[in-house]
Specification:
Strand order of the largest sheet of chain A: 1-3-2
Oligomer: homodimer
CATH class of chain A: Mainly Alpha
Radius of gyration of chain A: 22 Å
Distance between the termini of chain A: 36 Å
Number of strands of chain A: 3
CATH architecture of chain A: Orthogonal Bundle
Shape of chain A: globular
CATH topology of chain A: Arc Repressor Mutant, subunit A
Structural class of chain A: mainly alpha
Mean pLDDT of chain A: 88
Strand content of chain A: 5-15%
Low-confidence stretches of chain A: 1-17
DNA sequence: AATCAATTGTTACAACCACAACCAATATCA
DNA sequence: TGATATTGGTTGTGGTTGTAACAATTGATT
């Protein structure tokens, strides 16, 4: 439909035409139409905007937000369970948990059944901040959907569902 | 529609029920249904799979692949232009360019018009590798679309287009 | 019971990244 | 022209991340 490879900065002198040497084989690839690239860019744009909110509101990093969100949703879990549900690496979880614990937003309770693990849960302070952030998150998502339009948002969700269903977990 | 918050690992003893204390206000947020999270996960899954390919084929990092792809598409550009078209930070471009130059995949030519900039272009060796990677990229995208199904892929593209159109560039 | 394998979580280390500082060159404007 | 601001690109630094190694505990096998 549209062009999509224009340069809206307008500063440079010569606009680069898409006409390199093109050796022998099948030619170029339009990066800005390449699905993995587009997905990445879209995710980054949305995530950055949302990250600004919880960083401004609570000074959280992304891993901290995810741990908070997971604990807020499920109540009490171990670190590995958090990692599984939020798709984060062990060490990321470990450090985010430590950080939230330092803020007294969560508490560790040794498990009586398995002495390797600790049960993690939000403190009242943590839950209060979680509740505030949930409101912000809901508002953000609603605003995003409104911006995209219900129709486009629904299609986006369909596409994401397909990826989730057909591709396994990220690893 | 569907549940989406189940745990297919099945290893743990007690499955966490979604029933934390729920203070006073409106309750929890299902992270795995939250649009920014879903977008991020989907992008990461796809990117990781594709990254495995060009890392195995050519030992490239993601910034290096993007610089290669951009130069391959546009022929000759400056570092700033590469950054603008591939949405990468200055320093990332600088170091990726240096790395590709060390492999003799690209050449620098001082610009006669502006002695601050250097015109960057792929060497024959670089273009050859680019051509190979373009084939891999096309195959990957085709396989991805086939996996998702044409229908779902089209909806995904619509959603991404909406994000690109309605949301500005990542910063 | 004793050994070996697997799991949980933390930490050391190296790679990577963005921010800021910086140099060189150009543009702006008095 | 001369002073100042702006731009292109590189480098140093602090912070973040993943890999690997590790201690502690549990499970499996005999």
């Amino acid at each position: 439909m549209t062009d999509r490879v224009e340069d809206k900065a307008g500063s440079g002198a010569s606009e680069r035409q898409q006409e390199p040497s093109e050796g022998a084989a099948g030619g170029r690839l339009d990066l800005s139409a390449f699905l993995p690239y587009r997905l990445n860019q879209a995710a980054e744009r949305v995530s950055q905007r949302f990250a600004r909110l919880y960083r401004a509101e609570a000074g959280l990093t992304r891993p901290e937000w995810r741990v908070l969100a997971t604990l807020g949703q499920f109540g009490t879990m171990t670190a590995t369970e958090i990692g599984r549900h939020s798709a984060m690496h062990k060490t990321k979880v470990s450090r985010a948990v430590y950080s939230l614990e330092s803020r007294h937003w969560l508490t560790r309770t040794p498990s009586s059944a398995d002495r390797r693990v600790e049960m993690l849960a939000l403190s009242p302070k943590g839950r209060q901040n979680y509740n505030d952030l949930v409101t912000i998150a809901r508002d953000f998502e609603a605003a995003l959907v409104a911006t995209l339009g219900e129709e486009a948002a629904a299609r986006l969700r369909d596409g994401l569902t397909a990826i989730e269903d057909k591709l396994g977990p990220a690893r």
